[in-house]
Every structure is written in structure tokens, then in C-alpha cells.
Design goal:
The protein is α+β, with helices and mostly antiparallel strands. The chain is about 25% helix and about 25% strand. The chain has 4 helices and 4 strands; from the N terminus they run H-E-H-E-E-E-H-H. The longest helix has 20 residues. The two termini are about 30 Å apart. The relative contact order is 0.22.
């Protein structure tokens, strides 16, 4: 298995732009941004303004900034907040990736590192997101086909809640 890469927001933006025309071909302009503090909660006011939220698990690799240890996880929680402003013909997606702490040097300071992802994993995750956007923003019926899943069997160690930032906040995708 290759070494994990570091968090790369430009990879997510490039893949988002690359898939946009074929997946959301309704003529609206969509953008992807990042907010590293957002949660999976949407207030009543935000719902009234059209915001929706979803979360997914993704497969990513981590590298400790202190000891350089690397590890893989199939339980990297990602939260996507999105809305379509039909009058402006603009859609916005705001993403938050959650991190994990290093098992070797974890201490009480809750230092969480961001995962790096392969382009294939980013595409798979975004395809799932676009399917939700088509359903929730454009009212498209789902045809029952699911987003392609990798043929690779991903063996990772058991999920350690004490090392997971999303578990600390009670929103880990493992809880679903």
C-alpha cells in the first residue's frame, strides 16, 4: 500500500470542477468551499434559506505531524453543507473533513490530523454528493443505481473512538 498523502483541498476542488458539468447539468453555477469548524447541524433559519447537510465516510490516509507515523482509515467523516439559490442560479457546497489523532503520540491535547485522499476516492465521494444534490435540490428521482464502489478490499484496524475527531463531536459516520 502506498504512503498516505497530506490533505489537499485543491484536489477536491479540481475533481469537483471536473465532474460538475456531467453530474449537475442544470445550468446553475456551483462552487465548493471549505469550513473546518462547521458541524452537521442546520438551524431552522438555515433550513429556511435552503441549506441541507449530509455526511459520508471515505477512505483516506493520515500522517502524524509530530512523529511522521502513517495510517489508513476507511472511516474518515466528511460533512457537506449545500444549497441551491434558484433565483441567483448558484449552488454552494461547503465541506468539512474531520481528522484523527495519532495512536503513537496521542495525548490530552486532541491534535487531529487531516487525511489525504486518492483522486479515485475523491471522485467516488463527490459522485455520491452530486446524487444527493440532484435529489434534494432538483427533485430528481433516484434510479436505484448506486455510486460505484471500489473493488479494493480495504482492511483497516478497528476504529478507535478516542482518536476520532468526529466521534468526539458525536457525528462519526461509523454511528450510522
Amino acid at each position: 500500500m502506498s504512503r498516505p498523502t497530506d490533505w489537499n483541498s485543491s484536489l477536491w476542488k479540481n475533481c469537483f470542477e471536473g465532474l460538475l458539468d456531467q453530474e449537475l447539468d442544470h445550468g446553475d453555477e456551483w462552487t465548493l468551499g471549505f469550513n473546518y469548524r462547521q458541524t452537521d447541524e442546520v438551524s431552522k433559519e438555515e433550513r429556511q434559506r435552503g441549506w441541507k447537510v449530509g455526511k459520508q465516510c471515505a477512505y483516506g490516509g493520515f500522517r502524524c505531524g509530530r512523529c511522521s507515523k502513517t495510517w489508513w482509515s476507511a472511516k474518515v467523516t466528511l460533512v457537506f453543507r449545500y444549497r441551491l439559490r434558484k433565483t441567483a442560479e448558484k449552488g454552494t457546497v461547503i465541506m468539512r473533513p474531520y481528522g484523527q489523532s495519532c495512536m503513537s503520540c496521542h495525548d490530552d491535547q486532541d491534535v487531529f490530523y487531516m487525511a489525504g485522499f486518492s483522486e479515485i476516492e475523491v471522485d467516488r465521494t463527490l459522485l455520491h454528493l452530486f446524487k444527493k444534490i440532484r435529489k434534494n435540490c432538483y427533485g430528481e428521482e433516484q434510479d436505484g443505481s448506486d455510486v460505484p464502489v471500489s473493488d479494493i478490499v480495504r482492511k483497516t484496524k478497528p476504529h478507535k473512538k478516542e482518536l476520532c475527531e468526529a466521534c468526539h463531536q458525536g457525528i462519526c459516520c461509523l454511528e450510522e
